[in-house]
Amino acid sequence: MEIFDKVNAILAEMNAAAPQNAEETEQFRIKYLGSKNILKPLMGEIRNVPNERKKEYGQLINKVKQAAQNKYDELKAASENAADAAEAQDLDLTAPGEPLELGSRHPVSIVMNRIIQIFERIGFTVSEEREIEDDWHNFTAMNTPEDHPARDMQDTFYLKDSMQMLLRTHTSSVQARTMTTEKPPIRIIAPGRVYRNETISSRSHAQFHQVEGLYIDENVSFADMKQTLLYFAKEMYGVDKEIRLRPSYFPFTEPSAEMDVYWGLESEADYRITKGTGWLEILGCGMVDPQVLENCGIDPEKYSGFAFGMGIERQAMLLYGIEDIRLLFENDVRFLRQFASAL
Ligand code: DAH
Predict the structure, then answer these.
(1) Which fold has domain 107-342?
(2) Closest residue (by CA) to atom 13 of ligand 1?
(3) For residue 77, what pLDDT is reported?
(4) Average pLDDT, integer, range 202-216
(5) Residue 212 C-alpha to ligand 1 middle, in angstroms?
(6) Residue 29 and residue 27: Cα distance in Å, rounded?
(7) Domain limits of the chain?
(8) 69: which of 15, 17, 87, 157 lies 20 to 30 Å off by Cα?
């Protein structure tokens, strides 16, 4: 009989139903067990069933109801168990998710970026160059004599089977790269990594970073250099900072100088860092040697210029009170995380 088929179809559909959450379980309850459930109208249909089959029909309807009730009870129990299990694990399902952790800049990058910004404000542009250099740009063009100790294998990493190719020992090689390819006026800074065959200790490393500066034009004077460097020191270390230039020697500048910044002598650490003088050496500088201009194809009769080069790690160590340079190369996130708010 058609009506039996209808009820059996509802039974099959009910058995196949698979509510996935509390809301779907409630829909299931309303549909099969609620006050307006799907079986109600069929119950009324019993009057159209022939007498000899009325009992059978009533039993079938009851079977569906009972099965729906059992299924619903099971669903309820399962969801309660899940909630209990979550609670047992101390799992707060309403808690907000874990925050996504952002990385932080490396202290060397922070200091390097600051230096770049300071010089960009007065018209220097950034020139990034190769770390694998040839002997000419790193040494010869920069007036480093053949017998200079820096050219020794003990101090410089040469590429295998070649005394012509090396890992640059200073960013001064970018001076030669720029002067041979660009015409004055030249106003660049060259940040980057350099390499030396050094024993690694708390104070020195075989790789580190420098920022080189080069300014070439007509009538560039030592006074221009001094003003530029004074501006840098004040921007970097504070408006009240003084600088001093001490005579020095570099093969590629004449005259040459080293610049100190007045650091202060307030704490015990200041005494240690400045060896009791209050002054800190920050960079080397000088007027570009006319021979270097000539080596690079720039007329020293017409043009003059100044150059400077400074180490980054040392400045980062000073500014952040880092005592061991090796920390800057180990990439231990517990160390690096401390600079998350630095810039
Ligand atoms: N290249 C030098 C070094 O690595 C630093 C330096 C000194 C660079 C004087 C310069 C300069 O441009 O004029 O120690």
Answers:
(1) BirA Bifunctional Protein; domain 2 (3.30.930)
(2) 285
(3) 87
(4) 95
(5) 7
(6) 5
(7) 2-87, 107-342
(8) 87
